[in-house]
Amino acid sequence: MSISLKDFDYPLPKDLIAYYPAERRDHSRLLVLQRETGVLEHKHFYQIVDYLEEGDGLVINRTRVFPARLYGINEENQAKVEILFLKNSKDSTWEVLAKPGKKAPPGSVISFNQGKLRCQILERTESGSRLARFMFDVDLFEVLEQIGKIPLPPYIRREPEPQDKGRYQTIYAKEKGAVAAPTAGLHFTEDLLKGIEEKGIQIIPITLHVGWDSFRPVRVDNPEDHKLESEYFRIDQSSADRINQVKENGKRIVAVGTTTVRALETAADSEPHRIQPKSGWTKKFIYPPYRFRVVDSLITNFHLPRSTLLLLVSALATKELILKAYQEAIKESYRFYSYGDAMLII
Questions:
Q1: Angle (nearest 5°) at CA 47 between 199 and 293
Q2: Which of 136, 162, 232, 341 yields a CA-CA distance of 20 to 30 A from 19?
Q3: Using an 8 Å Cβ cutoff, are 264 and 206 in contact?
Q4: pTM assigned to the model
Q5: In the CATH scheme, what is the code of domain 5-65+165-345?
Q6: pLDDT at 201 over 80
Q7: What pLDDT band is residue 270 in, cutting at 50, 70 and 90?
């Protein structure tokens, strides 16, 4: 069955794009979609515990966003250049976006913060990004914490503010490497997680370092022609064992975010309902029709029209139900995208 990207479009009033987070993380709104009946319920995020059952596994992505946006000077011609880290290629070499690209041709040396950090542009990639080798005296992430800026998504049309350093980060973020937040997790608080555990739900951590591909426009109409950029992920033995035990017990795996879904489904082996401990790079692109091997339910935010993430959630709940839910969310003035409200698909 072939699908067309134009079938995954919807009009969104611009005033529903969230430019700032909710005052309290778990007081975001929550739209609950029941797949079997199509019933929609309007709740608040702190009520999500009511939909989780003893024995379920809540799988979280504990990647940590680092200050991946830098502003520097081309040492040769003094041109101003913006650099956005995308992913680590090897050792001190990173794939980056350079803006404007013509100010950073191969061979250029870009200096940041009066030489506190420097990089040499090595080559231009097929996708238009750059490979850059960074030169620094101490840990790169330490330098970036001092001089970098949080890379807010492009549709949040403002400069990062001090609060973004904490709020564009899950409370359980541990492992630095993401250039975008796994935003479904932004709604959790310590108290909410404690209440979930007290109900007998396992909280199971994995890692996938979210890249910038979530925000890249899909320029082809046939999703089969679109290729995702690779992202690094890791699921250790302990987490794999716990996930497999939940499945063996006939309980649900509830994924927090599309990044978690992609990691889990990448690690699924040929045996139904099991995953293997695994680490490496994934380009897994999930779109209808798709048979999920591990994930039973999903906590997610509202996604851009014609995006790979909208395709993924439609694979879980059908395009018709997702677009119905989105129209209801628009009607009820839910807040959309990274800093917006949440959705639970069960």
A1: 70
A2: 232
A3: yes
A4: 0.94
A5: 3.40.1780.10
A6: yes
A7: low
